[in-house]
Design goal:
With 378 residues, the protein is α/β, with parallel strands linked by helices. Helix content is 42%, strand content 19%. An 8-stranded mixed β-sheet has the order 6-5-7-4-8-9-10-11, with helices on both faces. The structure holds guanosine-5'-diphosphate (GDP) and magnesium ion. Keywords: Bacterial flagellum biogenesis, Bacterial flagellum protein export, Cell membrane, GTP-binding, Membrane, Nucleotide-binding, Protein transport, Transport. One of its GO terms (cellular component) is plasma membrane.
């Protein structure tokens, strides 16, 4: 009898080695997947498959099916079953491990409804700490109420939405004066969002509104804000420095709403934190809202949040939701950086395309049926 163990990078390679060495009649006794130490450090550890195979007189060597499977009366040695059982266990463990590394966790595969939601969330771009948190939540859910039945799907989605922090800036600022700045990189929709908010405040909420356009160095906040202010009949001040900004805020003390448009700062600019702090730091009456475009790549979203968080951020405004299929990316980043979400913008129209984020419209967007869910109040 010949018993040998083969180590390879994957099961196919290991089986090819067995076949080449022992021939096609070799009998596989066990298959295992494990990390084996490579040369040197931890980094050298690599996943390998170990296959133990045997070829010998105790095992049927004739081609085709072994005789004991054909002749049911033939006596089958007990160790055969033991070998099969062990092999099956190891194969099961191997697949379980594989599924955990590259797919949904193994326990989730027992709940088809939850697995579908998991796939939808992945497709929508939910990942990282938010995905892990949601998995932990629903694992507790299925443990606590294994018979939740049709409610399970609904509850699982509710758990996700509950994890997201939402804020209503109108309510936070009430009843005091509103002083909001809109910050972010160039082209994300700061000036357009400001115009939408200004129209809501002035014409729907009937507030006295003033606009400040903060130009910094060679960076203009907006070329079109002056046109908008004229058309909307709203007062506009253009300022260049912190002192001018403070003076403008002071002079307009009696206005209920002051909205500050800022230039598109580059998050990769090395001295941005210092610049932002010198310009806007420590102005307690001013709430800063970071404007993020949902079409931005996740790594750039993270860079932006990290760069702007030198200022206390009251909320994130997520724009261009109408242009993305990966809304989950931005939501995952907000969760990761504990940044509450306030407004969503779903198009360039002023003011219609501004919505206050709520659990209903978020759910609609995440599940890609957004239009029917966007009747929420702005
Ligand atoms: N599709 C779409 N376009 C938008 C949205 N918000 C702004 N835009 C457009 O994005 C462009 C840049 O907007 P702007 O407000 O000037 O960006 P800023 O540089 O951050 O001030 C303009 O053409 C806007 O009309 C939105 O929610 N959806
Ligand atoms: Mg602008």
């Amino acid at each position: 009898m010949k018993l040998k163990t083969y180590v390879a990078r994957n099961p196919q390679e290991a089986l090819a080695q067995v076949r080449q060495d022992l021939g096609s009649e070799a009998f596989i006794l066990s298959t295992q997947s494990r990390f084996l130490d490579g040369p040197g450090s931890e980094a050298g550890r690599q996943r390998r498959v170990e296959v133990t195979a045997v070829l010998g007189p105790e095992f049927p060597s004739s081609p085709g099916l072994p005789s004991w499977t054909v002749d049911s009366k033939a006596e089958v040695p007990a160790y055969f079953f033991e070998h099969f059982r062990e092999e099956l266990e190891e194969l099961k463990a191997f697949f379980r491990q594989w599924l955990q590394e590259s797919g949904p966790p193994y326990w989730l595969t027992r709940y088809p409804d939850l697995r579908t939601i998991y796939q939808l969330l992945l497709r929508a771009g939910i990942r990282g700490p938010l995905l892990h948190h949601w998995l932990e939540e629903i694992r507790t859910l299925v443990k606590d109420s294994p018979d939740a039945g049709p409610n399970l799907r609904k509850q699982a989605l509710e758990r996700l939405l509950k994890s997201l922090e939402l804020v209503d800036p109108w309510r936070i600022s009430a009843p005091g004066p509103i002083r909001w700045s809109f910050l972010g990189p160039s082209g994300v929709g700061k000036s357009t969002t400001l115009a939408k908010v200004a129209v809501r405040a002035a014409f729907m909420k009937k507030k006295r509104v003033g606009l400040i356009c903060l130009n910094h160095g060679h960076l203009p906040a907006s070329n079109s804000l002056a046109v908008f202010a004229r058309v909307a009949g709203l007062p506009l001040k253009t300022v260049e420095h912190r002192q001018e900004l403070l003076k403008a805020l002071k002079n307009w003390e009696d206005l209920e709403v002051i909205l500050v448009d800022t230039p598109g700062f580059n998050p990769r600019e090395a001295k941005l934190s210092v610049q932002l702090w010198q310009l806007l730091g420590d102005i307690p009456e001013l709430s800063h809202h970071l404007v993020l475009s949902s079409t931005t790549r996740e790594s750039s979203l993270e860079d932006t949040i990290m760069a702007f968080r030198v200022l206390p951020l009251a909320s994130a405004v997520v724009t261009k939701v109408d242009e993305t299929r990966n809304f989950g990316n931005v939501v995952s980043q907000l969760y990761k950086h504990h940044l509450p979400l306030s407004f969503l913008t779903l198009g360039p129209r002023v003011p219609e395309d501004l919505k206050l984020a709520n659990r209903t419209n978020l759910l609609g967007i995440l599940l890609h049926s957004r239009n029917s869910h966007l009747e929420a109040k702005g």
